[in-house]
Write a structure and sequence with these properties.
The complex is a heterodimer of chains A (493) and B (292). Chain A has 493 residues and is mainly α. Chain A is 76% helix and 0% strand. Chain A folds into two domains: 11-47 and 291-493, MetI-like fold, CATH 1.10.3720.10; 49-267, MetI-like (MetI-like fold). Chain B is built from twelve helices and eleven strands. The chains are: A mainly alpha (493), B alpha/beta (292).
Chain lengths: 493, 292
C-alpha cells in the first residue's frame, strides 16, 4: 500500500539498513586494556577543577565571544543578502559550497594568508555561517505567504514591497534563528582554538591532550557556563553594545605580510608538479591519482561509513532520550534532569567526547561514532521533545510505553525524521574534527596536508569533502521533499 | 525607537573608528619569537616569557613571545614573518629554512646533536627492553606523536622503514597519531595502543613526576642518535634591527647560563648550529615523502 505511513516506514527501513551496513563495515573493535588509571585521573579532575591553572583565561574568553559575535553579525548580513538572490541556482550552489567547508578548515586556509589574527577568526566563522544563513533565510522567504505582496498595487516599487510586505513576515523567525546561531558560533569560536587562535579551545585542547584534567575540567565548566547563560546576557536590545565590545576587544585586523595573498594563489595552492617550469600533464594526473588512491578514496569511504553509522545511532539515541524532556511523560523533576542531560551532551564539544572515548575504548571508529551520535542525538532529542509539547492528547490517552508507542511517536515521527535527515549533512561535516584526533576520515588527510604545509593537497582534499557534503545534502533533501517534510522543518526553525 | 537606534549607531561608529585606528606597534621594531609546543604547554607563557626577558635585556630590543598550537603553525608564522626567531624541532626547522630563503639555524642545545627517541610498550605485550631493534612489535598497534614531530614521528618512522623495508601501515595492525608526546604515554599506558614512540626527554620528565606507572608501560628500545631541536632566524632581521643582529642573537643564546631560563627548553646550554647540521633530517623527510 502506498500510504504516507508506508513511505515513512520504507525510508526508515532504508536508513536503518544503510546504518547497519555502515556498522558492519566499520572498524569498531575495542582494543583498550586498562583505562582505569586514566579514568580515575579524568574523574578526579572533574571533581577538583582548577580555575587558576590556565594562563590568560580572561583574554581567551574575550576572544571566544568576540569572534563569535562578529562572525554571526557578518554572517547574518551576508547571508541575508544572498537570500535575496535565492532564486538563482548559482547563489544556492555558492552558499552550499561555502557552508560545506568546516570552520576549522576555513581557519587553516586563512591562517596561511592573514596569520594568527582576529580577521582569521572572524572570517572562519562568518563565511560558512553566511552560507547557512543564506539557506535558512532563503527558505523562510520562499515559504512565506505571498498574499500581502500580491495585494499591493502593481505600481509599488520592489524595495517597498519587500520591506513592507515580505520582510515583516519572516523577520521574527530570522531574529530567533540568529540568536540560536550565536550559541553555535560560540562553540565554533572555541573550537578554532584547536588550530591556534587564542580562544578557550586553545587551552582546552592542550589541557586534555597533556592529561591536565583539573584545568581541563575548569575550562569545560566555564565553557558550559557561557553557553548555558547566553539567554541571560544576550538580548537583541544589547546587540550594538556587544558588537562594539567585540570590535574593541578584537579589532578584525590581519597579521598580513606583503605578498602573502599573492603567494597563496600563485604558489601555495598550485599543485606541486605544476610549480616546475617544464611540467607535463602526465605529472599532474599522476599526482592527482596518487592523491585519489591514497587519501581521497579511503578518506571519503571512512567519512561516509562513520557518518552513516553515527546517523543510525543518533536516531536511536534521540528516540530513547526525547521522552525525558517531553511534557507528555514524567514529572517536573524528571524533565529538569532530562533537560540538564541533553544540554550537557549537546554542548560538550565532540572532540572532547571522542578524546575520552579513545582513551576508554581504544582507537577505532567507535569513539568517533559514539561522540558524534551522543552530541547530535541530544540535539535531535531536544527538538523532537520540544515538539511533543505542542501535542494535545485525549484526556483518557494511555500512559507509559503505550503512550510513547501509539500516541506520541506516530505524531512526531515526520518531524523526527526531518531533523535527523537534516542533521545527517552536519554529521558528515563534523567528522572533520575526528580526523584531527587521528580517526582516518577525510579530515585526517586534510590535517596531515596542513601539517606537512602542503596547501595544494589540502585544497584538493577539501574540495572532495565539499563534493561529498553536497551529495549527502542532495539525498537528504530529495528524501525530505519526497516525504513532504519540508514545511514541518521550517515550522520548527 | 529612533533615539535608541541613533544611540546604537553612535556606539557602533565609535567602536569601529577606535578599532580602525588603534595604534599599531610599528614605531619600534619588536623581535617576536615562538617555540614549537612540545611539552608542558599549559605554562608556555610563563616559561617563555623568561626567555623573552633575557633576550630583551641582552639584545636591547623589545622581544615578545607568542604561543602557537602546533608545529606547522609555528612554521607558517615564521614564513609569514609573524615571528622572526623560533625554537624548532628538527623537521619543523628544515621545513622553515626550506620555505624562507635566507633563514638559517644559529644555535642548538648541547643535547641536540645526539637526540634519541624511546619506543615504549604496554606491559601486557610482554615485550622486554632490548639493546637492538625490538623484535615482536610487528602486527601490533602503534602510535606516533604529532605528525610533524621529529622524535615522535619522523625518526621512529625512518628506523621502522629501515628495519622492515615497509611502511608503518604495513608493519602494524593499526597506526595512530596521538598528537603529543604526553598523549602517546597516556594511550600506551591505557592499552589503547600497544606500542608507541616519543621524545626521551618527555618520558624522563613524566617518569620523574610520577605520571607514568612503570608496571603498565616501559621503554623497550632507544633509537640511534640524530640531530633535533635548533634555533632558526630569518635572514631579513638584519634589515629591521641592523647589521650583525643575527650574530648578536646567536651570541646571546650561546652565552645564556641562567639555569632557570635554560630549564625552559630544557637544555644544559646552547652551542652553535648551521643548516648543514640538519641535512640528514631534510633527506629523511624527503625519503619518507613528508617534504618535496
Amino acid at each position: 500500500m502506498n500510504t504516507t505511513a508506508s513511505g515513512f516506514r520504507r525510508t526508515t527501513l532504508w536508513l536503518g539498513l544503510a546504518g547497519l551496513l555502515a556498522f558492519f563495515i566499520a572498524d569498531i573493535s575495542i582494543t583498550t586494556r586498562d583505562p582505569g588509571m586514566e579514568l580515575e585521573r579524568i574523574s578526579s579532575g572533574f571533581i577538583s577543577p582548577d580555575f587558576f591553572a590556565t594562563e590568560q583565561i580572561g583574554s581567551a574568553l574575550g576572544y571566544t565571544l568576540s569572534f563569535a559575535i562578529q562572525g554571526v553579525v557578518l554572517g547574518f548580513t551576508c547571508g541575508f543578502l544572498l537570500a535575496l538572490l535565492w532564486r538563482w541556482r548559482i547563489v544556492r550552489a555558492f552558499s552550499a559550497t561555502i557552508r560545506a567547508v568546516h570552520e576549522l578548515f576555513w581557519g587553516l586556509l586563512f591562517l596561511q594568508v592573514f596569520g594568527l589574527s582576529a580577521l582569521t577568526g572572524l572570517l572562519a566563522i562568518a563565511i560558512p555561517y553566511s552560507g547557512i544563513f543564506a539557506k535558512v533565510f532563503g527558505e523562510f522567504l520562499e515559504e512565506a505567504d505571498r498574499a500581502p505582496a500580491l495585494a499591493l498595487t502593481p505600481r509599488s516599487d520592489a524595495f517597498s514591497v519587500f520591506l513592507y510586505a515580505r520582510l515583516p513576515l519572516v523577520w521574527q523567525h530570522m531574529k530567533t534563528y540568529g540568536a540560536y546561531r550565536l550559541e553555535c558560533a560560540v562553540r565554533a569560536s572555541a573550537i578554532l582554538g584547536f588550530i591556534g587562535l587564542p580562544t578557550i579551545g586553545f587551552h582546552l585542547e592542550t589541557a586534555f591532550r597533556q592529561g591536565d584534567y583539573s584545568s581541563g575540567a575548569a575550562l569545560l565548566y566555564l565553557f558550559l557556563g557561557i553557553i548555558l547563560s547566553i539567554r541571560w546576557w544576550f538580548r537583541p536590545s544589547l546587540l550594538p553594545l556587544w558588537i562594539a565590545a567585540a570590535l574593541l576587544w578584537a579589532p578584525p585586523r590581519a597579521n598580513y605580510t606583503e605578498g602573502a595573498l599573492n603567494r597563496f594563489f600563485t604558489e601555495d595552492i598550485i599543485p606541486a608538479p605544476m610549480r616546475q617550469h617544464d611540467w607535463q600533464w602526465h605529472q599532474l594526473t599522476d599526482w592527482l591519482s596518487m592523491l585519489g588512491q591514497e587519501q581521497i578514496l579511503p578518506g571519503l569511504g571512512n567519512t561516509l561509513i562513520l557518518g552513516t553509522a553515527a546517523m543510525l545511532l543518533t536516531g536511536i539515541i534521540a528516540l530513547v532520550l526525547f521522552p525525558l524532556i517531553s511534557s507528555q511523560f514524567g514529572n517536573r523533576f524528571s524533565r529538569a534532569g532530562g533537560h540538564g542531560l541533553l544540554v550537557i551532551f549537546r554542548t560538550l564539544p565532540e572532540f572532547l567526547l571522542a578524546f575520552v572515548f579513545v582513551l576508554l575504548l581504544g582507537p577505532s571508529m567507535l569513539p568517533g561514532i559514539l561522540a558524534l551520535a551522543l552530541h547530535t542525538g541530544a540535539i535531535v532529542a531536544h527538538l523532537s521533545g520540544r515538539f511533543t509539547d505542542s501535542l494535545t492528547l485525549r484526556s483518557d490517552a494511555s500512559g507509559g510505553l503505550n503512550r510513547y508507542a501509539f500516541e506520541v511517536l506516530p505524531r512526531i515521527y515526520p518531524n523526527f525524521l526531518a531533523f535527523l535527515l537534516y542533521r545527517w549533512e552536519i554529521i558528515m561535516r563534523e567528522t572533520a574534527i575526528l580526523g584531527i584526533l587521528g580517526i582516518t576520515t577525510l579530515g585526517f588527510y586534510i590535517d596531515s596536508a596542513f601539517s606537512e604545509l602542503r596547501i595544494d593537497r589540502a585544497v584538493v582534499l577539501i574540495a572532495a569533502g565539499v563534493a561529498l557534503n553536497l551529495l549527502v545534502d542532495r539525498i537528504s533533501r530529495s528524501l525530505r521533499s519526497h516525504l513532504r517534510l519540508r514545511n514541518a522543518l521550517a515550522d520548527q526553525s | 525607537m529612533n533615539k535608541r537606534f541613533m544611540a546604537a549607531m553612535a556606539v557602533l561608529c565609535t567602536a569601529f573608528s577606535i578599532a580602525a585606528c588603534s595604534p599599531s606597534s610599528e614605531e619600534k621594531p619588536v623581535l617576536i619569537f615562538s617555540a614549537i609546543p612540545d611539552q608542558d604547554e599549559a605554562r608556555l607563557m610563563t616559561r617563555f616569557n623568561k626567555v623573552a626577558n633575557y633576550l630583551s635585556d641582552t639584545l636591547d630590543v623589545e622581544v615578545r613571545y607568542v604561543p602557537v598550537k602546533s608545529y606547522s603553525a609555528s612554521v607558517t608564522a615564521f614564513r609569514n614573518n609573524e615571528i622572526q626567531l623560533a625554537w624548532f624541532g628538527g623537521l619543523s626547522g628544515v621545513q622553515a629554512t626550506q620555505l624562507v630563503p635566507g633563514s638559517y639555524a644559529i644555535a642548538q642545545g648541547v643535547e641536540d646533536p645526539q637526540y634519541v627517541s624511546y619506543f615504549i610498550a604496554h606491559a601486557d605485550t610482554g615485550l622486554q627492553p632490548s639493546e637492538y631493534f625490538p623484535e615482536g612489535i610487528e602486527g601490533r598497534s602503534f602510535t606516533f606523536g604529532s605528525k610533524s614531530s621529529t622524535s615522535g614521528r619522523l625518526m621512529p618512522e625512518f628506523f621502522l622503514r629501515e628495519h622492515y623495508g615497509k611502511s608503518p601501515e604495513e608493519i602494524f595492525s593499526r597506526v595512530g597519531f596521538s598528537g603529543d608526546h604526553s598523549a602517546t604515554i597516556a594511550l600506551v599506558q591505557s592499552g589503547a595502543y600497544e606500542v608507541g614512540a616519543l621524545s626521551y626527554q618527555v618520558w624522563d620528565r613524566e617518569l620523574a613526576e610520577g605520571k607514568v606507572d612503570p608496571d603498565k608501560v616501559r621503554v623497550i628500545w632507544t633509537t640511534p642518535p640524530y640531530p633535533d631541536y635548533h634555533w632558526v632566524i630569518r635572514g631579513d632581521v638584519e634589515q629591521k634591527f641592523g647589521e650583525g643582529f643575527a650574530d648578536k642573537v646567536r651570541q646571546a643564546l650561546l652565552e645564556l647560563d641562567d639555569r632557570d631560563v635554560l630549564d625552559t627548553f630544557p637544555r644544559e646550554k646552547f652551542i652553535p648550529a648551521s643548516n648543514d647540521d640538519f641535512l640528514p633530517i631534510l633527506e629523511t623527510a624527503r625519503s619518507l615523502g613528508l617534504m618535496d
